[in-house]
Design a protein that fits this description.
Elements: E1 4-7, H1 14-23, H2 33-40, E2 45-54, E3 57-67, H3 72-78, E4 80-84, E5 88-89, H4 94-108, E6 114-118, H5 125-133, E7 137-139, E8 142-147, H6 152-158, H7 161-172, E9 176-179, H8 183-200, H9 207-216, E10 223-230, E11 233-243, E12 246-254, H10 263-277, E13 282-284, H11 296-302, E14 307-310, E15 313-317, H12 320-333
Parallel strand pairs: 4-6, 12-13
Antiparallel strand pairs: 1-2, 2-3, 3-4, 3-5, 6-15, 7-15, 8-13, 8-14, 9-10, 10-11, 11-12
Helix pairs in contact: 2-9, 4-5, 7-10, 8-9
């Protein structure tokens, strides 16, 4: 008998769901029920989840979230569904994968302008074929991953010479590495990210996302809020997601007036060491732009000695007119 498709968080056994993701070779926090709760608590976010079940076993999960900016017509114009690291399917079964992706696509088609699947691992030709047959285009995208099993000395030697100098400079100037412990620190850190994102003209998720992560994920050691402090002041912030043997960079930024102290390099290096200290094996930068296109952020990340891989993305447009309007608007306001 074919596996049954189930919709919605309350119709899936959350314990079986979490066990399935945890034990999957490509399991990640973005596909966990805890992340559904985080998204559910975030302003302008709406999570969706589809599962494949066989009797009492979960055989597949695909979870994503609709994100929009602003309200009313502006929200509709910017609405997109993002899936990080999914779907995850038992034994990568092609039949289950096809059924779960089709079910998910049918579920969200009226909710968004487009959907984007942001892969966390390289995908094979069979997966590309499945998505192509369901009208998802494949778009190359890079990522950088640092293996942490080497000694600290070896990791330091793998840094680009400029990165080593800047890390040593940050330490000599008195930067300190810490974790946020309360709501006041969280608010201060969020204000730093607001400054960074305002400068880049990219919309930053509402404070409710960070508050939900802090209250839901931090207590169970699935999220870290690290800071670079100078003379008692938070001058940089790193939000990292922890799952199995991997730590994922998600948000990072620092106060512009303290750039000379090199807080960004300091944060990345010390976050890597913190992950290593918890016996994690990989630090994942969470994306490095499109191949063949200059991207300063990728150059920054490459300096930490990681491997560059192509994970790619899949995209499907459901409302082409709004998609065209949105692409026109992005040139002016960068709303996506």
């Amino acid at each position: 008998m074919a596996d049954k498709i189930v919709y919605g968080v309350d119709n899936i056994d959350n314990t079986l769901w979490a066990d399935f993701i945890t034990n999957h070779p490509q399991g990640n926090l973005f596909q966990m029920p805890q992340m559904y709760r985080v998204f559910e608590s975030t302003y302008n976010y709406k999570p969706f989840v589809v599962a494949s079940v066989d009797d009492d076993d979960v055989t597949g999960i695909m979870q994503g979230v609709r994100i929009c900016n602003g309200r009313g017509a502006f929200c509709k114009l910017s609405a997109r569904v993002i899936v990080w690291g999914g779907p995850l399917v038992k034994n990568n079964d092609s039949v289950i994968t096809t059924r779960i992706v089709k079910a998910f696509s049918d579920l969200i088609r009226k909710e968004c302008v487009y959907a984007e699947i942001r892969n966390l691992y390289p995908v094979d030709e069979e997966i590309k074929k499945i998505f192509n047959e369901l009208s998802f285009g494949y778009y190359p995208h890079l990522n950088i991953v640092v293996e942490l099993r080497d000694s600290e000395d070896v990791l330091l030697k793998k840094l680009a010479s400029a990165k080593r100098r800047n890390v040593k400079k940050a330490i000599s100037k008195g930067l300190e590495f810490a974790e946020i412990k309360d709501g006041k620190g969280l608010s201060l850190a969020y204000n730093i990210l607001k400054e960074v994102y305002k400068k880049t003209e990219i919309p930053l998720s509402h404070f409710s996302l960070f508050n939900a992560m802090f209250n839901t994920l931090v207590p169970i050691n699935l999220c870290k809020f690290y800071t670079a402090n100078y003379e008692g002041e938070i001058v940089g912030i790193m939000v990292a997601l922890r799952f199995n043997d991997r730590l994922y960079e998600w948000y990072v930024g620092s106060k512009r007036e303290f750039y000379a102290l090199r807080p960004n390099e300091f944060l990345v290096w010390n976050t890597m060491l913190a992950a290593k200290g918890e016996n994690l094996h990989f630090f994942d930068f969470g994306g490095a732009g499109k191949p063949g296109k200059e991207y300063g952020v990728r150059d920054f990340k490459k300096g930490f000695g990681g491997s560059t891989i192509e994970t790619g993305r899949f995209r499907k447009v459901y409302k082409k007119i709004l998609w065209l309007l949105g692409n026109a608007a992005i040139r002016v306001m960068k709303i996506f």
